[in-house]
Specification:
The complex is a heterodimer. By secondary structure, chain A is α+β, with helices and mostly antiparallel strands. Chain A contains 3 helices and 5 strands; from the N terminus they run H-E-E-H-E-H-E-E. Chain A has a 5-stranded mixed β-sheet, with helices on one face. Residues 129-134 of chain A have low confidence and may be disordered. In chain B, helix 2 (52-69) packs parallel to helix 3 and helix 4 (186-203) packs parallel to helix 5. Classes of the chains: A alpha+beta, B alpha+beta.
């Protein structure tokens, strides 16, 4: 997959981690789990959970758009929250980002690294957004 | 093509009762991706909390309704993430699970996590689609059986090939010929798992170099770098996309890794 246009969002390279930000195979793009990285500083945005989720989704949009896809091409998302109590906040933010036909989604609560409140990964269809398909 | 699958019964749409902003399932490129399913009454959408057995049975029945409405079925399951509230219930889950996927079961990873609303079980499922028309469009689903490996005494297949992809079950550090666990440090377990994974993928006509996405679970995120140091050796250039979480693992293992690879 193309690297994200904003190099601050290339977390795996910046933190020297052994994974790629995303991989494209055939019709699909698989993104690595992403946390709320600040696109300006490259540091963690550890504000209120709703803001962390928004930040993460904006970053994912950037990654997908860098690869010629987009949020509306996402097929499946897996959301890991650090606290199960943040479910409703997550759903609230979800409605802002996915007003119609939201992706299939699984959410659960687990231990996360670096004090992140959320980490999200996805499988998306590659290709131009939004016209192609359906 | 990204196609939202409408619910065959009203209760399965969690948007309706609970405001969970997610589609029940989406089909794309011959594969059906389902949202995490919990024990919900399919007609009323009412939550049906119960035991691991009763919740898992309800989930499988709902899954059957959902998949069959799109021309797929429980026989077409490819990969399952089975989430349970406490790993002590692992065998309870397995007993029920066997009834629903008795033959050629899907690849599977079990983890203990916190599930929404006090549920005890959640299944996160990927299935092979099947289009009834045109008749020629049947998407293949094939179990991968490595020769010389002892069959797992569990309701899962080590790997399933569906379409262009191979989906693996979560792998722990074991001797593949005897299935004896090989407990060790995070580094040692990671090495054993990735060695086995390479062998399994090659049986499926794939390889570590063709891995697309990895999900790694470790017992403590404090050991993150200990896993990474070994992981780097196996994926020296252009590593796969990856998600790592700290989670409760089964059987005293420290690491569990699953992946999706190009066949």
């Amino acid at each position: 997959m193309n690297e994200p246009a904003n190099p601050k969002l290339n977390v795996s390279r910046n933190a020297n981690l052994p994974h790629s930000p995303g991989i494209r195979v055939g019709d699909y793009i698989f993104l690595s789990g992403m946390g709320p990285v600040d696109p300006v500083s490259g540091g963690r945005n550890l504000g209120p959970i709703a803001e962390q989720i928004r930040q993460t989704l904006r970053n994912m949009a950037h990654m997908l758009e860098s690869a010629g896809s987009g949020l509306d091409r996402i097929v499946k998302m897996t959301v890991v929250l650090a606290a199960a109590g943040d479910y409703d906040e997550m759903n609230r933010v979800w409605r802002e980002f996915f007003p119609v036909d939201p992706p299939a989604r699984t959410a659960c609560a687990l231990q996360l690294s670096n004090g992140n409140g959320v980490e999200i990964e996805c499988v998306a269809l590659a290709g131009e957004s939004p016209a192609q398909g359906t | 093509m990204r196609e939202v699958i409408p619910t065959p019964v009203p209760g399965l749409d969690l948007r309706r009762e609970y405001g969970h902003h997610q589609s029940p399932a989406i089909r794309a490129g011959g594969i059906v991706f389902c949202s995490g399913m919990v024990g919900i009454d399919p007609q009323s959408g009412e939550r049906q909390h119960g035991t691991v057995t009763s919740e898992a049975r309800r989930i499988f029945e709902n899954l059957k309704l959902l998949l069959e409405s799109t021309g797929s079925s429980l026989d077409r399951l490819v990969q399952v993430h089975a989430m349970i509230y406490d790993r002590i219930e692992y065998d309870v889950l397995n007993r029920l699970y066997r009834q629903y996927v008795p033959n050629a079961p899907p690849a599977r990873t079990v983890m203990s996590v916190q599930i929404e609303a006090g549920f005890k079980v959640m299944l996160d499922v990927i299935a092979a689609a099947e289009t009834r028309q045109p008749a020629a469009m049947i998407y293949p689903r094939q179990v991968v059986k490595p020769g010389g490996w002892r069959r797992p005494g569990l309701p899962l297949s080590p790997a399933i090939r569906a379409g262009d992809f191979v989906f693996l079950s979560g792998m722990t550090a074991t001797d593949p010929t005897t299935r004896a666990p090989m407990h060790g440090t995070v580094a040692a377990e990671t090495r054993q798992i990735l060695t086995n994974m390479g062998e399994l993928l090659e049986t499926a006509g794939s390889s570590l170099a063709k891995v697309v996405k990895v999900n790694a679970l470790i017992y403590s995120m404090l050991e993150y770098e200990n896993m990474n140091s070994v992981y780097r050796e196996f994926f020296p250039v252009d590593p796969p996309a990856r998600t790592v979480c700290g989670a409760g693992l089964i059987g005293g293992h420290k690491v569990e890794i699953e992946c999706v690879a190009l066949a």
